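task queued by scheduler; priority normal; single chain, no ligands, no partner chains; default sampling; output format set to structure tokens
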Amino acid sequence: MTIGASITHQPKDSKHARPNIAGVHFDLTDCKSVFDQIRTWCNSRTHGHYITITNPYSVLLCHRNPEMNKATSGAFMTLPDGIGIILAAKLLGYKNLGRVTGPMFMLRMCDWGRKYAYRHFFYGGVKGVADKLKDELARMFPGLQVAGAYCPPFRPLSRQEDERIVKQINHAKPDIIWVGLGAPKQEKWMAEHVGKLNAGTMIGVGAAFDFHSGNVKWAPASIRRLGLEWAYRLAKEPKRMCRRNLDSFIFLSKVIRQRLMMTLHHKS
């Protein structure tokens, strides 16, 4: 798959093409702009929107997995997660307004949404994690409106099971559905449920479920500020994270190649 050819999706409400980073189009924006967009969806009661928060590993999954590629392409917003995306944006000459990591964005959104009484539904995690998550967030943010939580079984769902879950979520009337299934499963799930779920937006946040439920220790704030969360997670989960960090070199090679192609094109 060639750089720039993997995803053709363009923004649905912007006059400008979104920055292409290794074949994935990103929204290099800030949290406030995302909040404002979500508020517009919730106020208008429009459905069918989902947001992906994408790191270098997920970018490479888009190259390897056509379904992941299609799901990411269909997102209304693709936000930059991981210091690698921000560094790549700088190398490619794109202006950006910082990272929008899934765990931090979830906290800020839960806090900010209280004044609008937004209802949150938590879908994902291993058994018991979603319930622990909603309880922890409710403790952290008094007044948080929790519509419900559900931990799906770790296997493909039957059509009947899926229809039952969709009915349960819609009955809860959430404004925001947080999806913590990990990539690429959460991106595919959101894409498959567009038009079925009546919520302002779905947001894929991956490991945020484990971090905020206390199931997995989150990196200290000082490490996160330095952009070294990847190193902390590698030290804590070397077997699981080793492949992802090796992929970082593949991602970097694609970005460098893209930079060279852009330079050659500019000179010609």
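post-processing summary
- Residues 57 and 244 are 6 Å apart (CA to CA).
- The first helix runs from residue 31 to 44.
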